[in-house]
Specification:
- The complex is a heterodimer.
- Chain A has 2 domains: about 1-35, no CATH class; about 40-195, no CATH class.
- Chain A contains 5 helices and 11 strands; from the N terminus they run ααβββββαβββααβββ.
- In chain A, the strands form 3 sheets. Chain A has a 5-stranded antiparallel β-sheet with strand order 5-4-1-11-7, with no helix packed on it. Chain A has a 3-stranded antiparallel β-sheet with strand order 2-3-6, with no helix packed on it.
- By secondary structure, chain A is of the alpha+beta class.
- Chain B is built from 12 helices and no strands.
- In chain B, helix 7 packs antiparallel against helix 8 (about 180-200).
- Among the domains of chain B are: about 1-30, no CATH class; about 180-310, no CATH class.
- The chains are: A alpha+beta, B mainly alpha.
- At the A-B interface, helix 2, helix 4 and helix 5 of A face helix 7 and helix 8 of B.
């Protein structure tokens, strides 16, 4: 064995180099995640998507008052209809899954200017809008780049970090796409669903 | 060492790499083989042209009817033909009379099989990140080429295994969002090591290509890593070290890339720091002199340490 290693040292080095990088990645990224406690609360966010079939005369935004999600309408402008729709999405980090909360956008468009409505689909949800969830995980955008030497070395700060929820060395990335529903380039953080704790998958 | 000594050294190395005995060499030297060699070249030429015709025919057939094919037919004409070519190549390897046909068949299978796997994933995948498809394809091809190389020891299979292995790791690291420079540096260094190992074996014919690719990847990424940092000047030292290494491992490809990297860096450094102080014309003269000196040095190194040994 020793003789084989001595005779083929360079070959072994050549094969090992990428494997060492894989090992380093596991030690710095996967290991802290698997040893740490996964996020207990789901992340609620919205994305804006262009849809040429939509022509609503009134835009709206999501707001949270007293832990309740509401849709607040803007001014009615029938001359400049908006072709953007807002998707409401929930990221479950423990399962690494994103699900969409479907709601009736037509109901919002028919409301008066500057009014607020609680969506029936989100009624009963309690939302914490602080950037740090009660379990210590915080939401960080793609400009995040202060992850220490290893993070800087491997991921290079801004480029591909994307949106993540982070606690210490443990980080979970929000998938950059979910079917054909959204790309995470215009993700808007709403808050954490604190009314129920996530069950870890068996 | 004289030219004669160098030649003897090389013959010894080749004989050891290919397991040739003194008797084999004696027979080869005494055999009057001019006629045989000539007919062999013609036969090989025709077989290569034939292979090209077959491959071109398959390609034209596929492109003509591609829109009319359903998913199964598309997979069959790409992955199916590729896999059949692979099996045929294995069969040819087993028969002494058809061994030469194995190389073009392996080549056809190495092109059509990855294409077929990507077509299959394109037809049946339910969305998701396409890089996982490429990862699957490269993993399959790496396994196929690696295991077949293990069993059959053909240079083309070693080439394929290295190619798909490098592509696999590049895709994997890209999925993990590693910095492109880090990926290129590690894969480049890895390829340089593999090229060195190949050069010491009977597969030395493909070492030059991997020396070229490995050193180009390594030096390009390293420059990007150190550019505009306080360690930038270190690049010059590394390029010089690579030139030295190229004479040690006796690789023209590595010497060419390293010399080009050093020239490029000198050009970049002069343009960056001296263009506005001593003027652009004088900078151009300095670059020109550097070009002359390095070019001449590279030719001398090649003649003294590499050419004689090859």
């Amino acid at each position: 064995m020793k003789k084989f290693i001595r005779e083929n040292l360079v070959l072994i080095m050549g094969i090992s180099l990428p494997l060492v990088l894989v090992l380093l990645f596991f030690l710095t990224s996967v290991l802290p995640q698997s040893l740490g406690t996964p996020p207990q609360y789901e992340l609620l966010f919205s994305v804006v998507r262009y849809d040429y079939q939509t022509a609503a005369s009134r835009d709206f935004e999501f707001v949270v008052h007293d832990g309740v999600l509401k849709a607040r309408t803007g001014k009615n402008d029938s001359h400049n209809p908006t072709r953007y729709t807002r998707k409401l999405l929930v990221f479950n980090a423990a399962n690494d899954a994103v699900r969409e909360i479907h709601y009736d956008q037509g109901r919002i468009s028919n409301m008066a200017d500057q009014s607020e409505i609680v969506l029936p689909e989100t009624q009963g949800m309690k939302i914490d809008t602080s950037s740090r969830a009660p379990d210590g995980y915080s939401f960080e955008g793609p400009s995040y780049g202060n992850g220490g030497l290893m993070s800087e070395l491997f991921f290079g700060g801004y480029r591909n970090q994307g949106y993540r929820i982070v606690k210490g060395k443990s980080a979970y990335r929000v998938p950059s796409s979910f079917g054909d529903t959204y790309s995470a380039g215009n993700l808007q953080f709403i808050g954490w669903l604190v009314d129920k704790q996530v069950k870890r998958p068996e | 060492m004289t030219d004669r000594d160098d030649a003897l050294l090389e013959i010894t190395k080749l004989a050891r790499n290919h397991g040739l005995t003194l008797e084999d060499i004696r027979q080869a030297l005494t055999m009057p083989d001019k006629q045989k060699q000539s007919s062999g070249i013609v036969a090989r030429l025709f077989s290569y042209i034939g292979g090209i015709f077959i491959f071109a025919g398959i390609g034209v057939f596929i492109s003509m009817y591609w829109r009319d094919f359903n998913s199964e037919a598309r997979i069959l004409v790409t992955l199916g033909v590729g896999f059949a070519a692979y099996i045929l190549a294995l069969v040819c390897l087993g028969d002494k009379n058809y061994q030469r046909a194995a190389t073009p068949l392996f080549l056809i299978s190495a092109i059509l099989q990855p294409l077929g796997i990507l077509v299959m994933l394109n037809e049946y995948a339910m969305g998701g990140d396409r890089r996982y498809g490429i990862l699957f394809m490269t993993a399959y091809m790496l396994l196929q080429h690696g295991l077949t190389f293990w069993a059959r020891q053909r240079s083309l299979l070693a080439f394929g295994a290295i190619f798909f292995g490098a592509a696999f790791f590049v895709t994997l690291f890209d999925i993990w969002d590693f910095k492109p420079n880090l990926i290129s540096t590690v894969i480049g260094a890895s390829l340089l090591c593999l090229a060195y190992a190949l050069n010491q074996s009977r597969h030395a014919a493909i070492a030059g290509f991997w020396y070229f690719v490995g050193s180009a990847m390594f030096l390009w990424a390293l420059f990007d890593l150190v550019k505009d940092t306080s360690q930038e000047i270190v690049y010059l030292g590394i390029a010089a070290l690579m030139i030295f290494l190229s004479t040690w491992v006796r690789s023209r490809a590595m010497l060419f890339v390293s010399t080009l990297a050093m020239l490029g860096y000198i050009g970049y450094f002069t343009a960056e720091h001296f263009a506005n102080t001593v003027g652009w014309p004088i900078s151009l003269v300095i670059i020109g002199i550097a070009l002359f000196c390095l070019g001449s040095l590279a030719v001398r190194l090649n003649n003294k340490y590499i050419k004689q040994a090859l």
